[in-house]
Amino acid sequence: MNAILTIGELLLRLTPPCGVRLTDAENFSVRFGGSEANVATALSGFGEKSRFVTALPEGELGQAAENSLRRCGVDTRFCVRAKGRMGLYYYEQGASLRAGRVIYDRAGSVFAQTPVSAYPLAEALEGVRHLHLSGITPALGSYAAALCLLALKEAKSRGCSTSFDLNYRADLWSEEEAKKAFGALFPFVDLCIASSDGLGILGLSPAGTDPAACRAAAKEIKERYGFRAAALTVRESVSASLNRLSGVLYGEEAYFSPVFTVDIADRVGGGDAFAAGLLHALLRGAAGGEAIAFAAAANAYKHTLYGDNFCVPAEEIDAVLRGDTRLRR
What is the DSSP string of 246-300? Predict the structure, then answer.
């Protein structure tokens, strides 16, 4: 078993030119993305065999979305097609003092309307060693929540390891709904990933950038829910264009990454690159310190590239860790 499976919704992303607000936009760039799909493309870039399961609309739009993953080497054989609409989101990039903004238009999407029975889940899990999900998917409705729970149970029954990125989105559901859904999923999760400022959904205060607070929060998450490990992304926003990024991993002890200062080209997908980097390193047997350093570097590097998908060789992340920014000829 050597494949890594992710399951979630693939969205159409519409972005006005940099420096143009949504209210003033006359044209948009078109990309495809989604949390779990972003993890799959990043893992493929790192040299892993990644597999993605979703439901896409019939026709050219669904094919274009699938092609965006196949170009990155992601196995899409177990994606299903059905009649319906594709979910989308609008992304206004922030700059300097102006924060970025995301507006979702995904209600009633084909993914949200597809029942669990439509997916070839047993076949998709054949040859899989790890399953990764995020908290966005169960927020999309009862079908998606049931798919997450069934996938986790089936993965554990097959001896697969599992990970879950909280990714709580207040625009999609309430804290009460999220807590209930997460409570059903957590018993089947080995590694939990969260943001140091997004811990309220777990009943914890934000840890911010303080190392002691981050260590305590990661330890509390691991021990409270019985995870094998917990990891936090840590972000200091100097401005919408300049961030300092790092991470902490708590297993048997705490491991901290270096801090990376980044001029941001695109804010979206950094946490997904972090998750992919962490999984890549841990599944290849890296020690805790090495794994969290690779994850944080992947997160930082993603911020320099436009679009949701992040598909670069692991060697480029190693160069970040070496501080190698020289012109390559």
Answer: EEEEESSSEEEPPPEEEE-S--TTHHHHHHHHHHHHHHTT--HHHHHHHHHHHHH
User: For residue 68, what are its two tokens?
Assistant: 């965006």
User: H or E stretch including 134?
Assistant: strand 128-134
* Domains annotated on the chain, with CATH: 3-322 (3.40.1190.20)
Which of the following is catalytic: 171, 272, 308, 324?
272
How confident is the model over 174-200, as pLDDT tens digits? 999 999 999 999 999 999 999 999 999
Whether 210 is a known active-site residue: answer: no
Cα 7 from Cα 145, distance rounded (Å): 11
pTM greater than the 0.85 cutoff:
yes
Cβ neighbours of residue 71 closer than 8 Å, sequence gap 6 or more? none
| Of 156 and 327, more confident | 156
Please enumerate in sequence order all residues whose Cβ is within 8 A of that of 165, keeping only pairs 6 or more positions apart, or say none. Answer: 35, 39, 132, 133, 134, 135, 193, 194, 271, 272, 275
Q: What is the CA radius of gyration of the chain?
A: 18
CA-to-CA distance for 56 and 175, rounded, in angstroms? 28
> pLDDT band for position 1 (50/70/90)?
low
Question: Other C-beta atoms within 10 Å of 130: how many?
Answer: 23
